[in-house]
TrEMBL record:
Organism, as annotated: Pseudomonas silesiensis
YagK/YfjJ C-terminal domain segment(s): 49-216
A Pfam family the protein falls into: YagK_YfjJ_C
Highest taxon in the source lineage: Bacteria
Name by which UniProt lists this protein: Transposase
Length: 218
């Protein structure tokens, strides 16, 4: 195995698959450590819940607003995830206030920090939830009580901006969501292929004191 030239703690994966799972070969090489974490997060979600709702999105920084330097560090992702988890917990508590049984969910995630052409970072993110608790992102319209607007609200909180100032900063790509079942190997392969993009070596910064990749441990 070949070590990453920018970080000797990371190993590169130059094959056309990882543990038999398909990866986006044209985007390679990939970081084997990151592929391991991605697979672990997906499998732990499926071990915990027989049905999983997973979705991809990107987080961007505003072009015309000056932000404090610390918001361009990994602290901003910590703030985003804390806010999003709190919003999900609030939703579950509110849903259970009627006394009816409700399905809870952990928030599992994988993220990649990349540097764009102008030197500004952006984040690619995958989140996985219990599909018996959440099944859709909802309409991409302001003000609705759905996953999409929780993402926007959490990013606004992380950046210390208003929701209006974050308009367009949460990007939802084409075909962003996956509804997995524990026994659906094809669906799991499709998700792994899509999310393998987060594990590519290119466009990540090394040696700047920031992590280029993160994943939930639970």
């Amino acid at each position: 195995m070949k070590r990453h030239p920018g970080n000797s703690n990371l190993m590169l994966c130059c094959e056309d698959h990882y543990l038999g799972l398909p990866i986006q070969v044209s985007k390679g090489p990939f970081v084997r450590n990151y592929l391991y974490s991605l697979n672990r997060v997906i499998q732990r979600a499926l071990d915990d819940c027989p049905r999983v709702f997973a979705f991809r999105f990107d987080l961007r920084f505003p072009a015309a607003i000056d932000l404090p330097d610390y918001l361009y560090t990994n602290r901003v992702m910590d703030r985003f995830l804390e806010s999003f988890k709190a919003k999900i917990k609030h939703n579950r508590l509110k849903a259970g206030s009627s006394g009816k049984y409700i399905h809870d969910t952990k928030v599992r995630y994988v993220w990649a920090r990349e540097i764009g052409l102008l030197g500004k970072p952006h984040y690619h993110v995958l989140i996985l939830l219990n599909r018996d608790a959440f099944t859709t992102l909802g309409n991409f319209e302001p003000g609705r009580d759905n996953i999409f607007n929780r993402l926007v609200g959490s990013w606004a909180s992380a950046l210390r901006l208003s929701v209006d100032e974050c308009n367009g900063l949460v990007h939802i790509p084409d075909k962003p969501d996956y509804r997995l079942h524990r026994d659906d190997e094809l669906g799991q392969q499709e998700l792994f292929y899509r999310a393998s993009y987060l594990c590519k070596s290119a466009t990540k910064a090394y040696g700047d004191g920031q992590h280029g990749f993160g994943a939930s441990r639970v």
